[in-house]
Amino acid sequence: MAPSTNAALCFFLFLLPLSINAATFQIVNSCSNTVWAAWATTGPQTGGGNQLNPGQSWTVNINAGSTGGRIWARTGCSSDGRNCQTGDCGMLQCQGYGRAPNTLAEFSLNQNNNLDFFDISNVAGYNVGIDFSPTTGGCRGIRCSANIVGECPAQLRAPGGCNDPCTVFGTQQYCCNNGPCDPTDFSRFFKARCPDAYSYPQDDRTSTVVFTCPGGTNYRVTFCP
């Protein structure tokens, strides 16, 4: 075998584990209106976005080892995907997180013991329901789909969504920036409607809100399931 062929084979074998562990996310819009889907990770700092009309889907491949991942729907956007009522990141192809209120599908891939960690969060409020389900790997999915916008407490109401209390009030009681904090009436409002989702920043102290799958699992995120 020629040296160049050997080098190419070694390079392929080096990349093979990475390709096996990369995750494919199918993002589906089951809402009756157009949404602008977005995703972003902090490690590495990257992301993307796409307009999804009702019934459309979008497939995103996210590198193994990515951390700080979020997928969310933006609503009430201008035709170019900017100036959204909810989840706005300032551009169609998001390169960072969106602005509250927005329901979040969160993930970090191939972490401790090569496990993926994933959750749904209302810590940044709520705009549309989300189902976050593995399509491989044999592990359970999670869902947050309730009439949160319609039942939103008056202090948290926002155009197109329901804000989180930290965004509205900015205090330690709700933001938990300086040490431990406890559930509040506002966090209990979210928890009662979506028990499997984060309801405030330190929710994982008192309930199971982070779920795991083997590294290399693929996922489907459905808006308005």
Automatic annotation (TrEMBL):
Compartment(s) of residence: Cytoplasmic vesicle
Superkingdom, taxonomy of origin: Eukaryota
Family membership: Belongs to the thaumatin family.
Its biological purpose: Taste-modifying protein; intensely sweet-tasting. It is 100000 times sweeter than sucrose on a molar basis.
InterPro entries hit by this protein: Thaumatin
Alphabetical UniProt keywords: Cytoplasmic vesicle, Disulfide bond, Signal, Taste-modifying protein
GO annotation, cellular component aspect: cytoplasmic vesicle
Keyword match Protein biosynthesis: no
Organism whose genome encodes this protein: Zingiber officinale
Signal peptide (UniProt feature, chain positions): 1-22
Principal place of residence: cytoplasm
Pfam annotation, one family: Thaumatin
This protein's name: Thaumatin-like protein
